[in-house]
Design goal:
Elements (H helix, E strand, L loop, with lengths): L4 E3 L4 H10 L3 E4 L5 H6 L7 E4 L9 E4 L2 E5 L4 H6 L1 H6 L1 H8 L4 H4 L4 H7 L6 H7 L3 E4 L3 E3 H4 E3 L2 E2 L7 E7 L3 E8 L6 E10 L2 E7 L6 E2 L1 H9 L24 H22 L1
Parallel strand pairs: 1-3, 2-3
Antiparallel strand pairs: 4-5, 5-10, 6-7, 6-10, 8-9, 11-12, 12-13, 13-14
C-alpha cells in the first residue's frame, strides 16, 4: 500500500475544504472498497479524508412522511433500526443480507451508493424507491445519480450526507447472491406506490437499471401472472466467471417473480 496522509475532520465544511485543497484525495466512509483497492494498488490516493469523526452523518429519522438515513449509517444499523423495520421493512431486509457481519458493521449506505458497484444491493433500493441523494451541495434524484460502473453524478469533492426515501405502499427485494461475496448475481427491488410500480435490477449489468417492461406489466396487473410473457434482453447484460448474460437474464425474471410474491405477502 502506498503511503498517504490521513485526515479526520470534525465537520462537513472541513472535509470539503480538505478535498478541495488536497491533490489526489479520497473520501473514507466504511472503507469496504477503498481499503482493499489501496492494498492492491488499484487506488493510490495521497490523502484520505475520514468522515467518521463528523457528527450528524449517521442515524435514521422521519421527516414528515420521508425516511431519512444518514450517509455514515452502517448496514447493520439500518437492518436493526426499528424505524426502518416499521416504515420500510424491505430496506431493512436488504441491509441484513449485505456481505457478512464484518462488512455490515463497517460498511455504510453512503459509501455503497457513492461507490456504485454494479452488484451492490443499496443502489437497487435507492433507484426503485425513487430516493433523493443529499450531498453537501445539492439533492440528486436517484434516476440521475447512477451513471455507469463505479460512476455517479457526484462531482469531485462532493460528499453524500443522507438519503431520503419516500415510503411506498409495498416493496420487496430478492437477490441471487454469490455464495462467497454475497454480491448479487442478479437482484430485483420493486416498489409500488399508488398506481406506480418501479423496478430496479442490480448485479446483472454494468450499473443498476430500471426494468421498464417489468414495471409496465406490474403497473397493469400487480401479480406474478403479469410476468409470464416478460423477458429481459440478455444482450445488454454482463457475462463473467460467475454467470453469463443469458443466465443473468433468467435470474432477473426469477427474482422479479419472487419479489412480487414477497411484496404481496408482506404488504
Amino acid at each position: 500500500m502506498k503511503a498517504f496522509d490521513y485526515h479526520k475532520p470534525d465537520s462537513i465544511d472541513a472535509a470539503a475544504a480538505l478535498l478541495a485543497t488536497s491533490e489526489n484525495a479520497s473520501v473514507l466512509a466504511g472503507g469496504m472498497t477503498l481499503v482493499p483497492t489501496m492494498k492492491q494498488r488499484l487506488a493510490t490516493p495521497d490523502h484520505i479524508v475520514d468522515l467518521s469523526g463528523i457528527a450528524g452523518l449517521s442515524g435514521v429519522s422521519m421527516d414528515g412522511k420521508t425516511l431519512v438515513i444518514g450517509a455514515m449509517t452502517r448496514h447493520a444499523d439500518v437492518a436493526a433500526s426499528q424505524l426502518v423495520v416499521e416504515k420500510l421493512p424491505a430496506l431493512a431486509a436488504l441491509a441484513a443480507r449485505i456481505g457478512d457481519q464484518q462488512v455490515r458493521h463497517r460498511g455504510t449506505i453512503g459509501g455503497s451508493i457513492a461507490n456504485n458497484d454494479p452488484a451492490a444491493d443499496y443502489p437497487a433500493a435507492v433507484l426503485a424507491l425513487g430516493a433523493d441523494i443529499v450531498t453537501d451541495r445539492r439533492s440528486i434524484p436517484a434516476d440521475e445519480f447512477f451513471v455507469d460502473m463505479f460512476e455517479t453524478a457526484l462531482e469531485p469533492g462532493e460528499i453524500v450526507t443522507s438519503v431520503r426515501f419516500a415510503l411506498p405502499d409495498m416493496a420487496a427485494y430478492c437477490k441471487f447472491g454469490n455464495p462467497a461475496s454475497r454480491y448479487a448475481l442478479a437482484g430485483v427491488f420493486l416498489a409500488k406506490t399508488g398506481g406506480t410500480v418501479r423496478v430496479a435490477v442490480t448485479g446483472a449489468a454494468s450499473a443498476v437499471f430500471r426494468a421498464q417492461d417489468i414495471e409496465a406489466a406490474l403497473t397493469e396487473n400487480f401479480g406474478v401472472s403479469a410476468l409470464e410473457r416478460i423477458s429481459i434482453d440478455a444482450s445488454e447484460l454482463m457475462s463473467d466467471i460467475h454467470a453469463d448474460a443469458e443466465y443473468r437474464a433468467q435470474l432477473v425474471m426469477v427474482m422479479a417473480r419472487r419479489a412480487v410474491t414477497l411484496a404481496l405477502s408482506s404488504g
